[in-house]
Amino acid sequence: MAAAGSRPICYDKAMPASRAREQLRLPLERAAPAGAAAFVVSDSNSAAFDVLSRWPEHAGGVLAICGPAGSGKSHLAAIWAERVGAVALFGAEAALADPLELEGRPVLLDRAMDADDETLFHLINLAQSGGGALLVVSRPGPRHWSVKLPDLRSRLDALRLVSVEEPDDAVLAAILRARFAERSIIPAEEVIDYLVRRIDRSAAAAERIVSALDDEHRPVTRSLARQVLDAAEFDLPE
To answer: Is the pTM of this model over 0.90?
Structure first.
């Protein structure tokens, strides 16, 4: 990619004119506030949290954050984007961004696996040569992404990676409290503790049980939680 002061890198000259016009007209979006104060740091995410709280220290570069669905990786990435003022891009829509507006700026690319090879290649090169930074977010690590460009394959294999694990007790309890609070429900702590032990360790499972309990239109007690879990086909640990 171009060094500072040289001609900016653009997409392939063979790109259709209609796509180029779309790029020039696309307003770049900033990440929405992520609620850093509400983010629960625990053993499942502390390594990634520590890295992102400092990165990029000086030079830019590229960092990948990966983990299972509902692990909080997108939340953590959004906190980073808010802190550094990054441009937020999402999956295949990243192809519409104007690279001239991204040069030298921090960029967050969520759902990075959905971006096309050419877009990924140019975003990585921009971050590595123009003083910017690129944070890519996905479930599997970049080594497991299916790409066709040999040069992109080598770049993805060399990326620095931090992982977020599935929610542990502390994170799952925080997710449950947040989902209840959205419905103006404040259950006793014994209910939270009971659900943490019984439901699958995922944000999706937390959302499902909270929704089911809310649908009962009764005070949320441990007894009600047991009844709902026993009557429904929730993912329970073996």
So the answer is: no
